[in-house]
């Protein structure tokens, strides 16, 4: 049974100007211990999905359909008290720009202890020992437990936040752009550490990023999101060597690389759509070089075109490399 | 090839006040510490490095947003450090412009697009309104905001990030500068939009005959955009040379580590971890020996006992600041 | 996302006018949503009506010999002044026989004049100094900030008392003095703080790189971006000015002939304030007027706050 099974998740934000179609009919599954990447540009819905999984959405978020089964329990429908038990113990999250989520007036160690003691009835000393273990795990010196966030560098703060996410040994960790604000050498270290920890603790991870290079390195399977839809989902090699959705293909050619032949980059014309009034039919059709009449009329079905390779497109490319 | 910009031993030191009542300032942040390079006419010169290496400060020194503590900056042979006010300063401002990183904050939210792009024209004496309108329409079309009339009287918040950055580019180009400093112009934009902006900058180089200093932390972008590159670390240039040469054959251990750390969008490529230890230090009162010594995996005795190595020619326009660069080639 | 419109280039002033109207409409909608803003505006409108009504009444229904707010006298009620409200005098008469309602309505004009003038002067000075201090920093900043500290600590009323003994302190002079003094006070600190948030924005750097002089940047970039806040503070300053005048008049420190404060002062110096309930029409109407007008401007200020501060909006 998959650890996390998302089926037809649909979620909108209600605003004064109408409904923002943030997440529409998204389905995917994560097995225990697996690393999944979710890639897409700003406004594609990936952060909204993450917040939905933790039920941390703002008040104007409207859940419209589908289910999210975590270990068989539909966590979208359970009451808040039940969700509180799952939050951080079953699923935890590393937020975007997480270094800003450390409270500046408390010692870092104490903040993690607070997270632990909320979920486990252990005393302060036992919690401190646990924090020391966690610090060791993420590569922070134990003395740093008693320091304040402003005494940490950016990379150190990020590690502290990762330690906090791991504090209750969750089964699934969602990492939303965990290294975006960091320099490339620190990023490399942190990503390697996260991967080691994941394998050590047999944790599942959902990496969210706009950087396909990072996603390529850390994920076993990748989901590509565009304008609130999951347009393609397959294992990492397939996504890179055999992408089927035109958006995925375009994304691959929009990234410069330091390896390989130097080639001309292809950007995409136009802009991501306004989710208040998404385009009719397939949301990508205004920017798609292969769009036909059917693409403007009906949204394509999300289906399995090859074993374990899912696409939502009327004209998916097959057998391309 | 004619040189358009030349920096000679440019230094920018910021004092750090340590004691409250002490009048003597003893500590300095060496943001830019003896940087020398030149840019040829029509060239795109890249400045790469991690945060705190001094690349943004170098950019600001070139456009005279800050003044250097010492050193000279030559534009077309004229030392611009001496220019302080009056007509020479206005002429300088016509010739050198800047594109900023943040498309959301580099446009005044109360100015229409026309106001923003016309501002440099107004400052430099284009009195006639119709002439300003025509020039603004022309440059907006050139940066891809067509038809220009539909953009001229909108406000920044009505435009997307990519469009705003095009406006920022239009503003920089409208007075036809000779040299433009681009400070991470695509790092805050969506991936599918970046290629368009980068290609726009490349096209404008050809159409308007502009030379660029392209500042970025992203080596892949630097590879795409720049003809030559300089790698900075703690205020100094550690390696400099033609882009492809530096990227395929890095000679300085820092460059090697940096390149090794860049994620590669190819799942079949097995990337080895970069060979480097420690973290970046703040460049306060740096010691006289090689700045990279505490982190260098290949340091030898000579590195601890000599001053910071000068940039030396390794052949083919490829310079490196390392005493041991000659002892290895192509091994990381 | 972008509605493509077919727009020809019309004359620039027309376009700017249209944009200004559009922005005014939007700001008005926001102001209206705040609820308290329109309430305050309504109260101010009420006072404006009072102000307009007075000369009309004086020219038609009211006999100037009786109803003039300063020199009127009702012979019919001689010996019974201050007379309680009646049909002839809806708010009664004051100790020297003048109609209270007429006084109230007449004074509205000077209260508005005083409040708005004083607030305008304060805000113009505060904005300029705040912008200059923020942009230049250094010595200029230090001087004005220390000056502001001094002004805030200074016993304002004591100064006015001293001033009064030297010059004739009428309404306009008072407005000028209050305006200038407040202008150098706390408001410069607040507006400077706001100007600082503008100064560090990249578009200021862009303007410098484009060749803009300090004057150009302060005038075109900094001041327009702090003006919404200035306008907001102006409302609160009107409140302060009106209230200060009332206090000073009450203490008999001003050389004004008629104002709401003077009305209360007249009642007090004639000895009628002791018995609170009995001669209520002498102090309640002017007191209520002062409170209401101050409250109205305060509400307008809070309403404007939601326009200026996006985070305070209801949506």
Question: What do these coordinates show?
Answer:
The complex is a heterotrimer of chains A (321), B (332) and C (315). Chain A has 321 residues and is α/β, with parallel strands linked by helices. Helix content of chain A is 31%, strand content 25%. In chain A, the strands form two sheets. Chain A has an eight-stranded mixed β-sheet, with helices on both faces. The two termini of chain A are 32 Å apart. The relative contact order of chain A is 0.14. Chain B has 332 residues and is α/β, with parallel strands linked by helices. Chain B folds into two domains: 217 residues, 3-Layer(aba) Sandwich (Rossmann fold); 96 residues, no CATH class. The chains are: A alpha/beta (321), B alpha/beta (332), C mainly alpha (315). The interface between A and B is large, with 42 and 42 residues.
Task: Please outline the major beta sheet of chain A.
Answer: 8 strands, mixed
Distance between the termini of chain C: 22 Å
Rounded mean pLDDT score of chain A? 89
Most extensive interface, chain pair and sizes? A-B, 42 and 42 residues
CATH class of chain A: Alpha Beta
CATH homologous superfamily assignment of chain A:
P-loop containing nucleotide triphosphate hydrolases
Q: Provide the gyration radius of chain A in Å.
A: 20 Å
Number of strands of chain A: 12
Overall geometric form of chain C: elongated
Within the CATH hierarchy, at the fold level, what is the topology of chain A? Rossmann fold
Gross geometry of chain A = globular
Approximate helicity band of chain C: over 70%
Gyration radius over CA of chain C:
24 Å
**How is the quaternary structure best described?**
heterotrimer
Note the gap between the termini of chain A: 32 Å
Largest sheet of chain C: none
Summed up:
Chain A is α/β, with parallel strands linked by helices and 321 residues long. Helices cover 31% and strands 25% of the residues of chain A.
Write the layout of secondary structure elements.
The complex is a heterotrimer of chains A (321), B (332) and C (315).
Chain A: E1 4-15, E2 18-30, E3 35-39, H1 46-53, E4 61-70, E5 73-74, H2 80-86, E6 91-94, H3 108-119, H4 124-138, H5 154-166, E7 172-176, H6 184-201, E8 204-209, H7 212-218, E9 221-226, E10 229-235, H8 236-241, H9 246-253, H10 293-297, E11 302-306, E12 309-312
Parallel strand pairs in A: 3-8, 3-9, 6-7, 7-8
Antiparallel strand pairs in A: 1-2, 1-4, 4-5, 9-10, 10-12, 11-12
Helix pairs in contact in A: 3-4, 4-5, 5-6
Chain B: E1 3-16, E2 27-40, E3 44-48, H1 55-62, E4 70-75, E5 78-79, H2 86-95, E6 96-99, H3 113-123, H4 129-142, H5 149-152, H6 161-173, E7 179-183, H7 191-208, E8 211-216, H8 219-225, E9 228-233, E10 236-242, H9 243-248, H10 253-261, H11 301-305, E11 312-313, E12 319-320
Parallel strand pairs in B: 3-8, 3-9, 6-7, 7-8
Antiparallel strand pairs in B: 1-2, 1-4, 4-5, 9-10, 10-12, 11-12
Helix pairs in contact in B: 3-4, 3-6, 4-6, 6-7
Chain C: H1 12-33, H2 36-59, H3 64-67, H4 100-136, H5 138-153, H6 156-166, H7 171-183, H8 186-199, H9 202-210, H10 214-250, H11 260-269, H12 280-308
